[in-house]
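Record pair follows.
FIRST:
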Amino acid sequence: MLVFLLSLTLLAFVSSAKLPPNVKLCSKKDQNFLRCVEKNMMLAIKEFGPGSPDLGVPRLEPFFIEKLEIHGSQTGSVRLDQNYHNVSIYGFSISTISNLRIDHDKCRWEFDSVAPNIRMESDYALNGQLLVFPINGHGKSNVTMEIDIKGSSEIHTTWLIGTSVRKKIYGANRTRKPKKIIVSV
């Protein structure tokens, strides 16, 4: 998700498309450049929650994922495969970004983010084993999380589309530290 947010910010820097009035372009010459980018990234997250067909931005609130599979270890005393379908994720629009660092020469971005209330609603199926006890279940799920995220992204590819320069995020690393998780199944 945050990779998408960085893409959106890059779009704001290089796009000739019309941005919403409260999302501003930031100049590298501005002494408060990093703060400007942080502020406008958060504004863009909120502004583009319903999506923007003109800019090719998908809907963020809720963010929809058709299928999500998490396969656990197939050895050991705990095995659990998780399959989620029709996943709707709410809460990205209230995420905050801080401690932004940009190395323009290396095209590297680093930042911290807090997602204070992420809610995932989906259909689920679980299959596994805890010691000798089988785990099998399916139904509706609701998972609410508060997550601290530290991330970095590297942007390597540049190409021209008409008169606009576009950049593609090549690699992204995220460290997620859940503060709280509430699971209802």
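SECOND:
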Amino acid sequence: MLDIGKGDIFEDLKLKLCLSVTLLAMAPKAAEKKPAEKKPAEKAPAAAEKKPKAEKKISKEGGDKKKKRIKKNSETYKIYIFKVLKQVHPDIGISSKAMGIMNSFINDIFEKLAQESSRLARYNKKPTITSREIQTAVRLVLPGELAKHAVSEGTKAVTKFTSS
């Protein structure tokens, strides 16, 4: 067996894969969204809190209207990456750039697995993607021992989900 050091790329990929598999199990669901917790802040002056909003003056012509920007709801794995990071290394933080990279990494892996499992279902003339197709896709997409770890983590997550 190959002796791998702690700072090796394989260990890094193994950690990233475990993170992504765990995050896929913790993926956001529309019904489970919780509002962010508010930290108790120092009291601000009462006058600043009760300041009425200025009303918009409507011009008679109406030609000066600006288009409102529609905020796009883009779901990310950032909070889940942070939760897993704190489970693995409670004393380490992560920069926003690194967080963006991790989010892209998880999206890429997820898309590759989805494409491969879709292809497998089509080859077998099945209309449904089951956990079996996903497990086979993981074995095909990820190399060697990384696939073994991913399959075991995925099986553990599915077992935990079905038992609850």
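COMMENT: Residues 17-24+76-164 form a domain with the Histone, subunit A fold (CATH 1.10.20.10).
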